[in-house]
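Cross-check.
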Amino acid sequence: MSKLRWLGSLLLVSLAGTVIAQETAVAPVKQQQFQQAIAAFHQQWSDSQNPLEQFLIRKQRKEYLAKLLPDRQFLEWVGVLTSLRATANGKAYLEITVADPQRVDAQVRPRVGTWNNAYLDLDYGTLVFPGTELYDWLATFRGGEWVRFTGLAFPDDEDHLKEASTEAVDAMGAPLFITKFEYLERVEGPTLPESQPQLAASETVADNASKVEADPDKAEGKKQKADVVGAGHVREPSTDHQPTTDD
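Predicted model, tokenized:
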């Protein structure tokens, strides 16, 4: 009888795994609000020609994100795995494009990801080490796959969530929020337009490197944040682009 129960449990686990693998990606409400806010503030920032006003718009975004994500946690959000690589010592680093399957044509696509070398990662611990369960699990993934993930971002004085760009235009239009991932799982979703997965283990960076890789969206020395100076009057967010949060 015990043997039958064990076999039954094994079968249920196997079937459960199959169901999870085929589950359709659904963006939770907070993720949708996050994406809408990033897009709205980017639009306001782009419409302004005044660097002082742009500075205050970015500050408004920080305040909004602090209200939306006070614990800085991305809980079961969904997106597309767009970069998965390894350092010279095999430590994994990755990026996920945060995406809503119902709005894959969104022009502004925020990203969450790890640092890409041990030097930048010293104070964060985001790299995934060989020999861990998460590392072995990541080794089975392929570029362009939709994933559900949970991770924790880091505190930041400028953006509330630690952001890796050196230029304000990137921080507002294509932000990369540094994240320590807790888990990922595959889900089903549509093809993300212009998605260019990067899973090249041969393109490595030294663990003690002081520079990040030379990707278009990863400028050299991400650890140094771009300074944006100024203060002044900022227009009120327009009705068309006003983000909202749950109470």
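The chain has one domain: 21-219. Helices lie at 2-22, 29-47, 51-68, 133-138, 168-173. Passed to J.P. for a second look.
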